[in-house]
Design a protein that fits this description.
Helices cover 34% and strands 18% of the residues. It is of the alpha/beta class and 302 residues long.
Length: 302
């Protein structure tokens, strides 16, 4: 796909807003869509249309109105704990939404932003060739959405590890923002010592999404950061960045925290990215370096 595109971004949250902003910077037209008008800084100035992805008529009406050349599917719910407690509702939105979108694609390109939760977390890190075995209801819903869209023949699933960055207005600030908010006030935090991630900066996810959407690649691609680390190690690095005692970060077993339903190893690496020319200059940033730079930027996330 070449030239300027009209891209319908199904979603209007933190990640969708960053994707829309990246597409706009590259000269494309990005249209966000969600049930409620977005109020996040990332979505400011972007076009928006209402949709309920769980309703077939709503999705088809959206596509007729937006007249997109391509689609990015990045809608919620992404609260993994909520999905675990409400598996049928999660499936209705993710799998049901993918079914409705697949009907409306009519051969057009689609990229679904998916998750590391499609794996059980037994291995330290998973590449694209690893057999899927979802760890939770969110992973099952996302995997079903992947299969539905990939079956159209012109789609790609970009599985991403834990996404982070300053999330100033989010309903559920990501792990970096949550820790930064508390630690800069020298407040204690308790996080898992036995839960591992390969975090990826939101800007890198947006850059890969835009690049892959314009490529001819199909199937599944993984995007994980270059460093595998525990949440305790990450939080202590954030504490040092603010010049506060790393001892404010106390280790806790994963099973005793809000992360209990996540895979123990929520880490991804790619066997395929090196063969995709569009990704050649888009190496994801190291999480510790990026965290240091985010803290040094002085950006106020409140």
């Amino acid at each position: 796909m070449t030239g300027q595109l009209r891209v319908l971004v199904v979603g209007a949250g933190y990640l969708a807003g960053h994707v829309g902003r990246r597409l706009t910077e590259l000269g494309h037209t990005a249209i966000l869509s969600s049930r409620r008008r977005p109020a996040t800084p990332e979505s400011r100035g972007l076009d928006w249309l209402p949709v309920d992805v769980g309703e077939r008529r709503s999705v088809h009406a959206l596509v007729r109105l937006a007249r997109p050349d391509a689609f990015v599917v990045a809608h919620g719910p992404s609260d993994i704990t909520w999905c675990e407690a409400n598996p049928e509702r999660a499936a209705a939105v993710h799998q049901g939404g993918a079914t409705h979108l697949a009907e409306a694609l009519e051969g057009r390109r689609a990229l679904l932003v998916s998750t590391d939760n499609v794996f059980p977390g037994v291995k330290d890190s998973c590449a694209e060739s690893e057999p899927t075995e979802p760890a939770n209801a969110y992973g099952r819903a996302k995997l079903a959405a992947e299969e539905t869209l990939l079956a159209t023949g012109n789609a790609l699933a970009l599985r991403v590890s834990l996404v982070y960055g300053w999330d100033r207005a989010g309903l559920r600030p990501n792990f970096f923002t949550s820790c930064a908010l508390r630690l800069r006030r020298a407040e204690p935090v308790a996080v898992p010592h036995d839960h591992w991630n390969s975090p990826v900066l939101v800007d890198d996810v947006a850059a890969w999404t835009a690049a892959l959407l314009a490529s001819g690649h199909h199937g599944v691609v993984h995007l994980g950061g270059p460093r595998r680390l525990s949440r305790v190690a990450w939080a202590r690095h954030i504490a040092k960045g603010y010049g506060v005692d790393p001892g404010l970060v106390s280790p806790a077993p994963q099973r005793s925290t809000a992360y209990a339903c996540r895979p123990r190893n929520a880490c991804l690496h790619s066997e395929r990215a090196a063969g995709i020319p569009e990704l050649e200059d888009l190496a994801p940033m190291d999480v510790l370096k990026a965290s240091t730079e985010l803290i040094a930027s002085g950006e106020d996330p409140t």
